[in-house]
Amino acid sequence: MVTGASERPAGERGLTAGELAVTRQLLIHGPATRGDLGDRLNISYASMSRLARALILGGMASEDLEPAAAIGRPRQILTAVPSARHVVGVKLTGDTAYGVVCDMFGEVRATARAALPRPGEGGAVPVAPTVKVIAQLTNRLAPKVPSVDGIGVAVGGVVADRSIVREGTFLGWRDVDLAGPLRDRTGLPVIVTNDVTALAREQLWFGAGRTHSTFGIITVGAGLGVGVVREGIALEELIDNGHLLAHAPVDSSGPRCSLGHQGCVAAYLNREDLERHASAAANCPVTFDDLVRARAAGDQDATRRLDGAARALGHVVASFAGALQTTCIVLGGEDVAAFTDSPALQEAIDDRLRPGPLETQRCTLDLLTTPLTFTDWARGGAVAGIQHVLGA
Description:
With 392 residues, the protein is α/β, with parallel strands linked by helices. The chain has 3 domains: 10-83, Orthogonal Bundle (Arc Repressor Mutant, subunit A); 85-204 and 375-390, 2-Layer Sandwich (Nucleotidyltransferase, domain 5), CATH 3.30.420.40; 213-326 and 335-371, Nucleotidyltransferase, domain 5. It contains 14 helices and 16 strands. The protein has helices at residues 17-29, 34-41, 45-57, 127-141, 179-186, 195-206, 243-246, 265-269, 271-282, 288-296, 300-324, 336-340, 343-353, 374-390, and strands at 32-33, 61-65, 76-80, 86-92, 96-103, 108-115, 150-155, 157-160, 164-168, 173-177, 190-194, 215-220, 224-230, 233-234, 328-333, 366-371. The chain has a 5-stranded mixed sheet. Strands 14-13-12-15-16 form a 5-stranded mixed sheet, with helices on both faces. 43% of the residues are buried.
């Protein structure tokens, strides 16, 4: 059992549909009157009053008078209480667990990290010791907040049923139940999610979702990942986590990716492929960071390679936006800043958006950039955990 865990049974933590709708509105859009909330959510005043009382009694919200107005009596303003819930978020890489504990607004209150056990003979990181590491990390973070109400774990790969890691890309896992053993060990609600999906859930409540009901997320780092939010819902189980877009053709005369595709997006954009091509040309090891530094120093070959990667990313952005029929794409990941620094990214997007001579419709696209550290990835897991605990 985790030190500092809430004493409430797990089944009592979720909100009703109405309470969740009101809480979500307060978290995303800020304080509001009961009347305004009822109008936005199409809830009668009587029902809204019952929901407000329940949230206030449950400690989820508070209500105060707004400053006195010049005319009329001041109104009651309902506000979400940040400390009503706290959730630990964990991002698992191939060798490290990065942890945060967040309040209900997704604000990070403390961070910690711990090494994962070494892979076994088959190349997979042992599961039981990994569960122990996550539980210990939670215990380290728990004293930083009044209580811990849940855990959200973000992993690279394919996740099913918020619990089973079908394919853990960097952990060597296949069909591993991570949530069950972690729930048994800690006594807390647990959600396991793909890391880009966790970021999509975070952006839905605290980022792009505040202004766009449908948007896509593309992350660039060790690989290319995608997330989808459609009509206010983050899709949790995609048929493809980025492979199809990553291997879309860009230039039939371009370099080959590790799968043998010539001139596909991955051949230009994947970190390993980019480093492999640069190393072969230089006849010595060249890292991604080496390319970024060389470009800053005026090296033309490094500039050409990073521009090519940025151009490929621009084509992915345009194709993804068109497929989703959205005007918003969020770019994230450890490597994204290196590509957004290249004018080739926007040039490729602008060229794709350019209408034909007889077209009257003008496409626009909001491109939001969020460079990510592993702490940011862990925060995504925490926000997914907050939503899970609330019943979303």
